[in-house]
Amino acid sequence: SNTQANLNILRSNVNDLQKFIGELTDCYQQYEITNLDLEATVAAQFDLLINQLQKKKDKMLSDISNQQREQLENLSLQNNSYKQKLEEASILVNFIDECLKTNDCASYIQVADSLNTKINDSLAIWKDEIVYEAAVEPPLDVVLDSKICQKAISDLCFIQKSVPIQPEIIADECHMSNNNLTVCWRPPKNCQVDGYILELMEDGQTKYKEIYRGKECKYTARNLHFDTTYNARVRAYNKAGISEQSVEICQGTTPKG
């Protein structure tokens, strides 16, 4: 009866929907797992970047610290050396001053040559070793050039990891009309697609020629040659690359007449 027939259809619909709900449940669980995996992967990549940045920071701060320590050591050595020379020269000056104050000319004449030698030796040391300039390089006058790094951070983005699956040409919807070939195709499932590349090749040739690149899944190649067979194929692409080619279709234009 008609009731029984409709009941069978309804029962079939119920079974189909139950099956599809089960597929949706599996899909939901798979998405949850995939998202958790993606979050973990991205977090690990950021941790790696942060770790590399921290190492670079530690290295540059260490270089600054080492240079400062070296310069301070040079200053300290110079200061101590000059203090010692100052003390030695001061003692000599005081000694000679005392000698010049003596009223014993005979005694002074006996030591005069020796005193002159000591003075000349001291002046020679002064000339050769005393430099009135700090023995350090000028303080660092630099700033961290972080513009490139900041731009790289601001440009961080997700990129497609896998190339798309090849599209499927819908042969029943492809047709030739007045030397205009219309090609239709289905998007590949479960993958990110940025666009498609449609290629055409005349029968007898060996290389395909790109005639369309874009996001539409339908394109009409117009004003083709009369009485010519054309092969068409399509590929999908994203930031990861270009898919394999689809199955080819073959269509012929009308004879010239």
Verbal overview:
- Helices cover 52% and strands 18% of the residues.
- It has helices spanning 2-101, 105-129, 147-154, and strands at 168-169, 175-177, 180-186, 195-202, 209-214, 218-221, 229-238, 241-242, 249-252.
- It is elongated, with a radius of gyration of 45 Å.
What distinguishing features does this structure have?
257 residues; alpha+beta; five-stranded antiparallel beta sheet; four-stranded antiparallel beta sheet; 18% strand
Short description:
The protein is of the alpha+beta class and 257 residues long. The chain has helices spanning 2-101, 105-129, 147-154, and strands at 168-169, 175-177, 180-186, 195-202, 209-214, 218-221, 229-238, 241-242, 249-252.
How far apart, in Å, are the first and last alpha carbons? 59 Å
Helix content bin: 40-55%
Spatial extent as radius of gyration: 45 Å
Order of helices and strands: HHHEEEEEEEEE
Overall form: elongated
Low-confidence stretches are none
Share of β-strand residues: 15-25%
Class by SSE composition = alpha+beta
Describe the sheet with the most strands. 5 strands, antiparallel
Helices and strands in order:
Layout: H1 2-101, H2 105-129, H3 147-154, E1 168-169, E2 175-177, E3 180-186, E4 195-202, E5 209-214, E6 218-221, E7 229-238, E8 241-242, E9 249-252
Antiparallel strand pairs: 1-3, 2-3, 3-6, 4-5, 4-7, 7-8, 7-9
Helix pairs in contact: 1-2
